[in-house]
Design brief:
Elements (H helix, E strand, L loop, with lengths): L2 H4 L5 E5 L4 H13 L2 E5 L12 E6 L3 H12 L5 E6 L4 H10 L3 E4 L7 H46 L3 H15 L3 H16 L1
Parallel strand pairs: 1-2, 1-3, 3-4, 4-5
Helix pairs in contact: 5-6, 5-7, 6-7
Length: 196
């Protein structure tokens, strides 16, 4: 079974939508699914950071602008599901720029909400995992670049071969009980100081 479907009852949901019959039905349906849900209106200038999923009404008004500004400034990594009343270029652009993973159209119906919740959570989890993987790979690549730079410094300053430079860095790291990256950074920093 899909992890997001299995864990759907642990999801914390915040709904940014004016109080009306549709919002009440949306909140009731999310509760029936088993999620903890809170409706917020009017929006404040600070975005809620404790939500896993945010349903947000997108329309061309000041409230949407306030929410988008708060969302941009928020450290929250909540999954965003857009609620749209009609499709206009401005609304579509706002939804895309905000990073919405799914949409719910008005009039809101109970059918499809569970699917939207589960799929949006699945997509968000995949995206977060991919971003973490990219960060790790970038860090590893930076480490390789530092190693190459440190080897080049030892080769030019000490006349070492590439293998001798690598072995020197490795042996210094082992004797100091630190990573090779720490030794490479030290060599690069020392070269920059001496190079002044």
């Amino acid at each position: 079974m899909l992890k997001a479907l299995r864990d759907v009852r642990t999801v914390r949901v915040v709904v940014y939508h004016p109080k009306d019959r549709e919002r009440d039905e949306l909140v009731a349906q999310i509760r029936r699914i088993g999620c903890e849900v809170e409706a917020v209106w009017p929006p404040s200038e600070r975005f809620r950071n404790d939500a896993d999923v945010v349903f947000m009404l997108f329309r061309q008004d000041g409230f949407t602008h306030v929410l988008l500004k708060a969302l941009a400034e928020s450290p929250s990594r909540a999954t965003l599901i857009a609620i749209v009343e009609f499709e206009s270029p401005a609304v579509i652009e706002a939804v895309a720029r905000a990073g919405a993973v799914s949409i719910v159209t008005k009039p809101i119906r109970a059918f499809g909400l569970l699917t939207s919740l589960v799929l949006s959570q699945t997509i968000s989890i995949r995206e977060k995992n991919l971003l973490d993987r990219v960060r790790k790979l970038e860090s590893k690549l930076d480490g390789f670049r530092r190693l190459e730079k440190a080897k080049a410094i030892l080769m030019s300053r000490k006349g070492f071969s590439e293998q001798e430079a690598y072995d020197t860095i490795r042996s210094r790291a082992m004797s100091a009980r630190v990573s090779m990256d720490v030794v490479c950074t030290t060599i690069i920093d020392a070269d920059e100081i001496v190079g002044l």
